[in-house]
Design brief:
Number of helices: 15
Radius of gyration: 23 Å
Helix content: 25-40%
Distance between the termini: 56 Å
Largest sheet: 9 strands, mixed
Number of strands: 26
Strand content: 25-35%
Length: about 500
């Protein structure tokens, strides 16, 4: 069964159950199924078929989900594109993926006009304006297919191992690469969520993370659709509004990046917000501060699950809700159908307590990078995916992220894990966010340097104050030589701190 058929099956079994709420729009299972099939028929009329790529430069909305599931139904490959990338970055993705169509929100029309791809492939860019009342993706207004398309219109439906989505990675080590993920990858990703967290028909997921990012599609949307739950889409603009939606819509589950959870906890509505209807939250995209996890647990009674995954693998580990308090900070254990090893540079498994690179094998691991066999061979060896992340395993088998393999600072021959120093900084009450990078040093090779956001009024605490406060918690060689207090750390759309930008800044100060 492909992901498009999930929508059809829901409409057949439970036609009147809620599927989606987006602003003033409320859709039942059968409502959404009609939209999805109509969108698929309209795409097919424009020549889109199995294996064709369809790019989307779209913000969160019903139209994005129409397109995602319609492409799944046809066997087309969706290419989600972050519309906030530079023109050059978007052009690279489009030239590399060669989409048959590029669907874009009206608000991104000027961006599309500036693309070299647009001039080289006239007619392929199709705008949509759902807010103005037009049909789902702007393809259906005049072609007469709305409400008439059905499953019979798909001549050769995709199967489990057919590609579903081409998701471009952030490109921290060069130009973004397209990770090709299949229907089977997403099916087992959903199964893992059901097994670990018991998602079911009463689940009501608030989707605030951007849908062009793997976290929202793989954590906020597809497991909930598979489980028979419903979705509420909302832009994360004002934390107070998100808290209000959580309460008014009786949300039971939300995936978001840590900075979103932090902003909500700082909101003036935090104290009065009633979370008694919430089953659990999950953070992703960056490490979640343990003290912030405890705040949600202790002040709001919210079970805060943890996990770990990547674009190329979907979720790798789960921290079960039963362990969410006692093991806060751990990423848990390998998901049910997944194998995880921690290895040294020679590929040998490391003992408990020692850091090793995370290697993963299982049905959620992607098949490779789009048209990059050499890059694929670098990370896939005998079915095992090399994550580049370092973790340690405690005696009970729980895993803890140590840092990136390329984010180890080697100072006078000693390894300093940036993540360890960042965690120590975040434990200080004066610090709300922190990032540590290595600064070249002629005598010691590298020295740790930190950038922090304060939880209090800037100017009341200095970098020197923070170094002194860290003293009892870190060995002397791990202490940052300098700590820069900044108003805001640079972040990508997914909430990840952009360390390359900080390294550039470090080199210039």
């Amino acid at each position: 069964m492909n992901l498009g058929e999930w929508v059809t099956k829901r409409a057949e079994l439970y036609p009147g159950r809620p599927f989606l709420k987006a602003g003033a729009l409320s859709l039942t299972n059968v409502d959404f199924s009609k939209r999805m099939h109509a969108t698929a028929a309209s795409l097919a009329k424009r020549g889109v078929g199995k294996g064709d790529r369809v790019a989307a430069l779209m913000e969160n909305g019903a139209a994005f989900l129409d397109l995602f599931f319609a492409c799944a139904r046809l066997g087309a490959i969706l290419v989600p594109v972050n519309p906030h990338l530079t023109i050059e970055e978007i052009d690279h993705i489009l030239v590399d993926s060669e989409p048959l169509l590029v669907l874009h929100s009206l608000s991104h029309t000027e961006v599309v006009r500036g693309l070299a791809f647009h001039s080289q492939a006239p007619g392929r860019a199709v705008p949509h304006d759902e807010a103005a009342g037009k049909n789902p993706v702007g393809l259906l207004a005049d072609d007469g297919t709305l409400g008439r398309a059905d499953a019979a219109s798909v001549q050769s439906p995709p199967e489990a191992n057919d590609p579903l989505i081409l998701m471009y990675t952030s490109g921290t080590t060069g130009r973004p690469k397209g990770a090709l993920l299949t229907h089977r990858n997403f099916l087992f990703g959903a199964i893992h969520s059901l097994l670990a967290y018991g998602l079911g028909p009463r689940c009501r997921s608030l989707v605030v993370a951007p849908l062009f990012h793997i976290g929202a599609l793989a954590a906020s949307v597809t497991p909930v659709v598979y489980a028979g739950g419903s979705l509420v889409l909302e832009a994360f603009e004002r934390p107070a509004d998100t808290l209000q939606t959580l309460v008014e819509e009786q949300i039971t589950y939300m995936f978001a990046v840590p900075v979103m959870f932090e902003m909500m906890a700082r909101s003036g509505r935090w104290e009065t917000a009633d979370f008694s209807h919430v089953d659990f939250f999950i953070a992703g995209g960056a490490p979640m501060p343990v003290d912030l996890i405890h705040r949600y647990q202790d002040e709001k009674g919210v079970a805060f699950a943890q996990g770990y995954g990547m674009t190329e693998t979907l979720r790798i580990t789960n921290l079960d809700l039963a362990d969410a308090h006692t093991k806060a900070g751990s990423i848990g254990k390998a998901a049910f159908h997944t194998e995880v090893r921690l290895v040294d540079d020679e590929g040998r498994e490391v003992p408990a307590g020692q850091p090793g690179e995370i290697m993963v094998k299982g049905p959620t691991v992607f098949g490779g990078y789009w048209r990059q066999p050499a890059a694929t061979d670098q990370v896939l060896r005998n079915g095992w995916f090399s994550t580049g992340d370092l973790a340690r395993r405690d005696e009970a088998g729980f895993l803890y992220i140590v840092g990136r393999k390329n984010d180890v600072i080697i100072c006078s021959g000693k390894n300093i894990y940036a993540a360890e120093v960042e965690q120590a900084l975040r434990r200080l009450s004066a610090v709300s966010a922190a990032a540590v990078v290595g600064r070249p040093d002629k005598r010691r090779g590298e020295i740790p340097e930190a950038f922090v956001e304060l939880a209090e009024v800037p100017g009341t605490t200095t970098g020197a104050d923070l170094i002194a406060l860290l003293g009892p918690h870190l060995a002397e060689y791990k202490l940052p030589r300098r700590i820069h207090v900044v108003d805001r750390l640079p972040r990508g759309k997914s909430g990840k701190i952009l360390k390359n930008a900080l390294k550039e800044r470090s080199a210039n100060v």
